Amino acid sequence: MNPHSPVRQVLVIGAGAIGTSTALQLARSGAAVTLVTETIGSAGASGRSLSWLNSAGPRSDDYHRLRMAGIERYRSLATRLGSPSFLHFDGGLTWAGPGESFADRHRHELDIGYESLWVSPAEAARWAPGVDAAAVAEEGAIFNPGEGWVDLPMLADELLTELVEAGATVRTGIGRATVRVDDGRATGATTESGETFDADAVVLATGPWVPRDLADLGVVLPELTPVSLLVTSKPVESPLKAVLNTPRVAVRPTPNGSLVFDAAWSEEEVVVRENGSYSVADSTIAGLVAEARAVLAGRPELTVERYGVGPKPIPGDGEPVVGPVEEVPGLFTVFTHSGATLALILGELVAREVLTGEESPLLRSFRPGRFAPASR
Question: What are the FAD dependent oxidoreductase domain coordinates in residue numbering (predicted)?
């Protein structure tokens, strides 16, 4: 830790992958860290994420650079842990829907140096065993060999174990914690039961609830947060190792032999009740199962084990919102889509900024203050 920094004690609110990663990096740097969460770790967006590690398709140069750094951190983690079961790099396969083409996307990926192979349907089945070649678009598909997937709850558990060993305090099931502000500065948090936590700096990493939590402080953060729905099957015999992103469903394997899958159309069918709870029709789940089976070789029987539903964090302009909150000194926040790809790198960069006060060039484009004053 920077000996000249006034920050010695840091409170991290939110124990998903990003919050836990940030807390661990802070503790490794010598800070006194307390990590708190409303219920249990990974109970929010981290527990219902497809967790595809990638930087595929067009995006801003800064966002691509950050995502590639994120993927590299996972490769370092895999080396350090000896290829853990919750982290795999077996590539990603995607193809366009009817009336569309991914030829331009492929050219873009080649132009920026992102490993991208254009493959025929038959070749796709060889590069990604377990996919049904007959389901692949006639024009072909893109196979990205450098992509992978991570089981975020298992990752968070691994990081949490290290965090406790590093001497941090971890509190779960405390209910909602709101940032406490004294004399205009963040000084900790208070729970609904009245319990207080003191800190020199606070990191708000509550996933889709970040805009709500900032709104309590008078800070407006534009968002496009939708509902997410992730279905998990019981273990199934399938050689699938790659992540599939197809027009009607995305599928990836899990460490125990199950498959997880989601789709944009299924999320739109989720009903949000007046009390904020969710209703998912049996027909929606059955439709997802059918779409998943349709892209898998042999069309294996898929039995649903469970599903998770809830909000998925997406900032108003689609890019990460990371760093100090100008309106509240001492408060830092992380609000982003692609939380799986970015979890490790954001934890590292945010921790460094909190403790040193030095701006990370990788985060310069993603500040909360970038939105127009009218929208804030």
Answer: 10-352
Cα–Cα distance between 271 and 227 in angstroms, integer? Answer: 9
pLDDT in tens, 211-231: 999 999 999 999 999 999 999
Structurally, at CATH architecture level, domain 92-145+226-311 sits in: 2-Layer Sandwich (3.30)
Q: Tokens for 321, please give them.
A: 């919102």
Q: Where are the alpha helices (DSSP H) in 193-248?
A: 210-215
User: Is-contact 43 37, C-beta < 8 A?
Assistant: yes
- Count of CB atoms situated within 10 Å of the CB of 107: 11
CA distance 188 to 210: 16
10 Å Cβ neighbour count for 355?
A: 22
Kindly report whether the global pTM for this prediction surpasses the value 0.90: yes
Residue 239 sits at the vertex; the CA angle it makes with 234 and 240, to the nearest 5 degrees, is 80
CATH 3.50.50.60 fits 9-47+153-222+316-375, yes or no: yes
Please return the burial class of 132, using the count of CB atoms within 10 Å of its CB with bins 0-12, 13-18 and 19+. Answer: middle
- CA separation for the pair 254, 36 (Å, rounded): 28
**Contact status, residue 200 vs residue 331, Cβ threshold 8 Å:** no
